[in-house]
Write a structure and sequence with these properties.
- With about 300 residues, the chain is an alpha/beta fold.
- The chain is built from 13 helices and eight strands.
Length: about 300
């Protein structure tokens, strides 16, 4: 396995995922990766395929297959793999990204294919294909709504791995920062910089809507523009400060007997001050729509 396929982090969640993958590495069981966009499902699919006897890896984007693939797509792909391969036994991993976007016809074709996992061309060539799927939605809801086949759901989820969002495994952030700093410093042929304590503290409290991908692209962009010295708050892009943060573990100073509206008004006031009165930015920080913020301002006489 090369460094780009490592799972970075020492959190309990990541350790649990590593353990499950190791247990399943020598089998042909199907794996379903669940998690928000940017949590690293693509990388995990490669990590899953790097163990055992897997020889070949191929990714399919089901968003594209939705409109362009034939209804016999998976059978055709398996037969082509058999025709091109000269080995007596070849092991493949097929990674089906955005499995929730697969149309019903292709779902039926995939189910039919999975019920016959080995494709044989003549008596000498045998193809074994392991399927790893990923989704950023609750697939059971799609099953309940009749948009995803229940029998296929159980077929592709022999092992289910839930990848937590970055905000739920903040202890992994320092490891990820170190990894991406090293990776992009080598890529850009620059001396590896350091982040100031203020930046590291802000990263720990950030919400990270884009998860690990957002952190990676942020570090890549910073290293592109700032080649030397310590990276401070002034080196971060402006839009980073308009995105919501999560609690860093500090409790609010709540005084018994004070009405909740008083606290709500003060929270709104301080967030507006933080963004110099910009309502759109304040709404993002508060986690509400701009329309709802406007209503609150009228309610509290702050408009």
């Amino acid at each position: 396995m090369n460094s780009s396929e490592e799972i970075i982090g020492n959190s309990k969640e990541i350790s649990r995922i590593r353990h499950k993958i190791k247990q399943a590495s020598d089998s042909q069981v199907s794996i379903l990766l669940e998690g928000e966009s940017g949590t690293g499902k693509d990388l995990l699919s490669r990590y899953c395929s790097s163990g055992g006897n897997i020889s070949f890896y191929k990714k399919f984007d089901c968003e594209i297959l939705e409109s362009s693939a034939s209804t016999n797509f998976f059978m055709d792909m398996a037969e082509r793999s058999a025709e091109k391969n000269s080995q007596s036994i070849a092991n493949y991993t097929w990674y089906l990204d955005h499995i929730e976007d697969l149309n019903m016809a292709l779902q039926a074709n995939l189910l039919s294919f999975l019920e016959s996992p080995a494709v044989i061309r003549s008596e000498k060539i045998k193809i074994q294909i392991r399927v790893i799927s990923s989704t950023s939605v609750e697939l059971k809801d799609r099953v309940r709504d009749g948009k995803f086949r229940e029998d296929l759901y159980y077929r592709i989820s022999g092992v289910k791995l839930m990848i937590p969002p970055l905000r739920e495994r903040k202890e992994d952030i320092p490891f990820l920062i170190s990894h991406f700093l090293k990776m992009y410093s080598l890529k850009f042929e620059k001396k590896q910089p350091e982040f100031s304590a203020d930046v590291l503290n802000l990263f720990q409290s950030h919400y990270w809507h884009g998860n690990v991908r957002q952190l990676e692209m942020l570090i890549s962009g910073i290293l592109t523009l700032h080649a030397r010295g310590t990276i401070s708050l002034k080196n971060l892009p402006e839009e980073f400060f308009t995105q919501p943060v999560i609690s860093a573990g500090k409790e609010l100073n709540v005084v018994p007997g004070i009405a909740m509206k008083t606290y709500e008004k003060e929270i709104i006031r301080k967030n507006l001050m933080f963004v110099n009165g910009n309502r759109a930015k304040a709404a993002i920080l508060l986690g509400i729509s701009e329309r709802n913020l406007y209503r609150k301002l009228i309610e509290f006489g702050m408009q």
